[in-house]
Design goal:
2 domains; Sig_transdc_resp-reg_receiver; Response regulatory domain-containing protein; 9 helices; 11 strands; single chain; alpha/beta; CheY-like_superfamily; phosphoprotein
């Protein structure tokens, strides 16, 4: 499969004269804005416009689907019903009724010249309204599937995580993300507060910034593991992993700023691997 072209794209990048949508100068503003955003997005995305099922899609979607579903940027009724639309069913109907929706971990099969390809995505459907508020189209984005079978198979379930981060805003966001993943999370800003909490109750994971006031995250983790060898550790650092190279206990590290999928991957790894006993 060819690589995705990373150059900027918009409606002006294509000739629409031969499509069902015609000259862009006559397009309604919502169609133009949505198409501009879609065409310049790295996420596979398509727009269904009007009751005729006219579709517009970006290069990321075309690379995924193959030539059998039309050529970028679309603009006409597709020769074959796109798999995301076939899979969306009632969620698509609800989007036409004005309700945004998500279909998690959806299997899509694309019939390609080199054989069928099945992939899993979260389908995110967003109604596109005109100036009067009427729904004129539906945008369908194919986000990476949030379900992680390898995590489900571990049997570890929710973990109790202590977050140590002196930036209160960052601490709050991390805790909220962890809770959204189904874990329990408490946050503190100072290593002394962390040690006090660790002495009072048991945690499965210590999630600590490396740079902290009064004591480094490395020293904090070393003391915490001395008291509880089963504690698993994730470090977050904006300064690389120089301080982490000679540690005697297992850990995962994240380089700030990190992506949500990197955080999920680190959590999955510590859930599958208990810390080294003392």
């Amino acid at each position: 499969m060819p690589d995705l072209d990373t150059s900027a794209r918009s409606t002006a990048s294509y000739d629409w004269s031969a499509t069902a949508l015609g000259d862009t100068a006559r397009w309604p503003l919502p169609l133009r804005l949505t198409s501009d955003l879609l065409l310049n997005s790295p996420v596979p995305t398509l727009l269904v416009w009007g009751t005729e099922t006219i579709t517009v899609f970006n290069e990321a979607y075309a690379l995924l689907a193959g030539p059998g579903y039309g050529r970028v940027p679309g603009g006409s009724v597709p020769p074959v019903l796109p798999p995301p639309l076939a899979a969306a069913g009632k969620i698509l109907d609800a989007a036409w009724g004005g309700e945004a929706g998500v279909m998690q971990d959806t299997a899509l099969t694309f019939r390609r010249l080199d054989g069928s390809q099945e992939s899993r995505f979260d389908l995110r459907l967003t109604p596109v309204r005109d100036e009067t508020g009427a729904v004129r189209g539906v945008q369908v984005a194919l986000a990476p599937a949030t379900a992680a079978p390898q995590e489900e198979d571990t049997g570890d379930g929710a973990m109790r995580i202590l977050v140590v981060e002196d930036n209160v805003d960052s601490q709050y966001l991390v805790c909220e993300m962890l809770k959204a993943f189904g874990h329990e999370a408490d946050g503190v800003a100072h290593p002394d507060d962390a040690l006090a909490l660790l002495a009072r109750q048991r945690y499965d994971v210590l999630f600590s910034d490396v740079s902290l006031p009064g004591m480094s995250g490395v020293d904090l983790a070393t003391r915490a593991i001395a008291d509880d060898p089963s504690l698993r550790v994730i470090f977050a650092s904006g300064y690389g992993d120089t301080l982490l190279r000679h540690l005697s206990f297992p850990y995962q590290s994240l380089q700030k700023p990190y992506e949500i999928d990197q955080l999920q991957d680190a959590l999955s790894k510590v859930a599958r691997r208990p810390a080294k006993g003392g």
